[in-house]
Design goal:
This protein is mainly β. Helices cover 12% and strands 58% of the residues. The chain is globular.
Length: 59
């Protein structure tokens, strides 16, 4: 099940990992965890360095 998380921030000097960490996700190397649930990164909606949202699949 895909879940979209709103971001709305410019990440000119950052990576997608910075975006996910700012959203509260913890990286364990293969998946991401947040609020006791595990997710896989699917993609993001962005224009240049501005990230509108991130889509994750809940495992």
């Amino acid at each position: 099940m895909s879940i979209e998380f709103e971001v709305g921030k410019d990440y000119e000097e950052g990576s997608i990992l910075d975006v996910l960490h700012d959203l509260g996700f913890q990286d364990d190397g293969k998946t991401f965890a947040k609020d006791g649930k595990r997710y896989n990164y699917v993609g993001c909606d962005r224009y240049q360095s501005y990230v509108f949202s991130v889509t994750m699949d809940q495992l």
